């Protein structure tokens, strides 16, 4: 017997899907949530944001104990780490949060279905049918029927055709978050978010890390000065970068791989034991029955949607990594909320211009709004306010004073156009900037606002003052 009468059937329980399901339920809809994994939370919770940050935090503590506490007068005898325990703690964090989501789903009376969801057509009465195939009964799919379907199936890593993933030596971020021993030499292909974060993680734990990047620099969409400062810092931390470079050959040798690289016109060879391929991700559309259902894809293979997140097929919606925009969990969650609210007739919107981005390196990079390069390109007149953490009392107390805040404000109105932070706790500090920029605030608004002393947030205030040439501690 099919399960029917749903107002909404969500396929995919990542940050986009489970958030949409909860919001839809809050709005009075009867919701089904279909997920093929046996846990909820998607890539973000199970093999992305959370496990990577759990390990980054552990490795940062170790690196600080090794290199960063002596100046505080704290030294450790016989310092060592237990990788198995680090991995176990990471799993614990993931499991606890997954339990939390399962509880929320239950509490919101969302009906959960485990298995692969596929669009199985619309009935004559306009209701959508979704088939769910589980590992237990692969031959007999279960049918669910509802008014609308929301696709939130996310994406998966791009593979290099000449270097396919083997789960052992050539891996994606999933395996690189679960290595059972520290690689001797980890070669990373792609200096994007994953390359920089996982490169930092394994470098801190003692691996030699080389990152090969096709472009002449990394993070091409970041503010140029921030990217430069991060490059200097990561290089100082011991990560080796090869820009304008690509892997041209690989040859397995005993327990390791000989890799041929062409970098800036010269040929190089190196020996490594693991290769992490992190060159981007592609939408998860296979097996969803999209073409049979008439769901149109855009030029990049993502589901094309309108402002209601409705695809070209009425009654079928899509959000998150499956559609256009940055591949970020908070973007997927916001779309989940807004999509459910628009289904309920509310005039909600996603503020796409003000999505913050963070790279969880040490120091962190965080930004929102336009970069200086973009303002020049669009010939928008601007002023810059800049302030360094080295002149901030709290950063000095913490002995963590590398970096700066850069505020870009409109030359005539002072309206904040972009904020770029390279420094300690940038991921937390950026929230103030997101609030100000979203509400159309000015640099003066930040400058006139109390910031407790001594705190890192005073750097933001001083940068705002600096945009008007009146920083106090500059
Ligand atoms: P997903 O999280 O990918 O969830 C999709 C779900 O759909 C999955 O659970 C999948 O099993 C399920 N599914 C797929 N097909 C079907 C089907 N046919 N039937 C049933 N279920 C199906 N973003 C950040 O904002 N901050 C970070 O720090 C961050 N770190 C990251 C680190 C790594 C290593 C990676 C890989 C990604 C990271 N991201 C981060 C990106 C973030 O994980 C994604 O943007 C986010 O998970 C997208 O959410 P989503 O709901 O669209 O899809
Ligand atoms: P990415 O798009 O961030 O970076 C890929 C990099 O690989 C680019 O610099 C690109 O120029 C380079 N590249 C492409 N082909 C190459 C080749 N053949 N050889 C060498 N270099 C090549 O992709 P990444 O790092 O795989 O991450 C995927 C997505 O996951 C990101 O777009 C991001 O949105 C998300 N993510 C977000 C995080 C965060 O918010 N902190 C952390 C990790 C991932």
Protein architecture, described:
The chain is of the alpha/beta class and 474 residues long. The protein has 3 domains: 3-156 and 282-352, FAD/NAD(P)-binding domain (3-Layer(bba) Sandwich), CATH 3.50.50.60; 170-279, FAD/NAD(P)-binding domain; 363-466, FAD/NAD-linked reductase, C-terminal dimerisation domain (Enolase-like, domain 1, 2-Layer Sandwich), CATH 3.30.390. It has 14 helices and 22 strands. The protein has helices at 15-26, 42-47, 49-68, 83-107, 173-176, 193-204, 224-236, 290-293, 329-343, 372-377, 393-398, 426-438, 443-447, 458-466, and strands at residues 3-11, 31-35, 111-114, 116-122, 128-133, 142-151, 155-157, 170-171, 185-189, 208-212, 240-242, 245-253, 256-263, 266-272, 274-277, 281-283, 316-318, 357-359, 364-369, 382-388, 404-410, 416-423. Strands 1, 2, 3, 4, 5, 6 and 17 form a 7-stranded mixed beta sheet that branches. A 5-stranded parallel beta sheet has the order 8-15-9-10-11. Helix 1 packs parallel to helix 9, helix 3 packs antiparallel against helix 4 and helix 3 crosses helix 6 (193-204). The mean pLDDT is 97. Bound molecules: flavin-adenine dinucleotide and 1,4-dihydronicotinamide adenine dinucleotide (NAI).
What's the quick description here?
By secondary structure, this protein is α/β, with parallel strands linked by helices.
């Amino acid at each position: 017997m099919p399960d029917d009468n749903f107002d909404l059937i969500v396929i995919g329980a990542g940050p986009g899907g489970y958030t949409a399901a909860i919001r839809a339920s809050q709005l009075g809809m009867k919701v089904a949530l279909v997920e093929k994994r046996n846990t909820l939370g998607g890539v973000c919770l199970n093999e992305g944001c959370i496990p990577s940050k759990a390990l980054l935090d552990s490795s940062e503590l170790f690196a600080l104990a090794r290199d960063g506490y002596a100046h505080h007068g704290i030294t450790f005898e016989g310092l060592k780490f237990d990788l198995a325990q680090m991995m176990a703690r990471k799993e614990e964090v993931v499991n606890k949060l997954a339990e939390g989501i399962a509880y929320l789903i239950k509490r919101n009376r969302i009906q959960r279905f485990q298995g692969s969801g596929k669009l199985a057509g619309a009935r004559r009465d306009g209701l959508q049918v979704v088939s769910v195939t589980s590992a237990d009964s692969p031959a007999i799919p279960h049918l669910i029927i509802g008014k609308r379907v929301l696709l939130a199936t996310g994406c998966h890593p791009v593979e290099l055709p000449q270097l396919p993933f083997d789960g052992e030596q050539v891996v994606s971020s999933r395996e690189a978050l679960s290595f059972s021993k520290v690689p001797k030499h980890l070669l990373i292909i792609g200096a994007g978010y994953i390359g920089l974060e996982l490169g930092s993680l394994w470098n801190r734990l003692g691996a030699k890390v080389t990152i090969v990047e096709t472009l002449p620099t990394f993070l091409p969409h970041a503010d140029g000065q921030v990217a430069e400062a991060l490059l200097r810092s990561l290089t100082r931390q011991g990560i080796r970068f090869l820009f304008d470079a690509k892997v041209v050959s690989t040859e397995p040798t005993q327990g390791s791989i000989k890799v041929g690289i062409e970098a800036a016109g010269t040929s190089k060879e190196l020996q490594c034991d693991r290769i992490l391929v992190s060159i981007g991700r592609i939408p998860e559309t296979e097996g969803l029955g999209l073409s049979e259902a008439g769901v149109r894809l855009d030029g990049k293979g993502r589901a094309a949607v309108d402002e209601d997140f409705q695809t070209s097929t009425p009654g079928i919606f899509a959000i998150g990594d499956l559609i256009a925009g940055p591949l970020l969990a908070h973007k997927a969650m916001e779309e989940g909320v807004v999509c459910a609210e628009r289904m309920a007739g509310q005039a909600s919107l996603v503020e796409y211009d003000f999505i913050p981005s963070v790279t969880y390196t040490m120091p962190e990079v965080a930004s929102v709004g336009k970069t200086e390069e973009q303002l020049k390109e669009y010939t928008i007149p601007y002023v810059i306010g800049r302030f360094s953490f080295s002149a901030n009392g709290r950063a000095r107390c913490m002995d963590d004073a590398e970096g700066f805040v850069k505020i870009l404000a409109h030359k005539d109105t002072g309206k904040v156009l972009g904020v770029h932070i390279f420094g300690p706790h940038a991921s937390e500090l950026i929230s103030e900037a997101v609030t100000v920029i979203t509400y159309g605030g000015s640099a003066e608004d930040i400058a006139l606002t109390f910031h407790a002393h001594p705190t890192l947030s005073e750097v933001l205030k001083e940068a705002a003052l600096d945009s008007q040439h009146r920083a106090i501690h500059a």
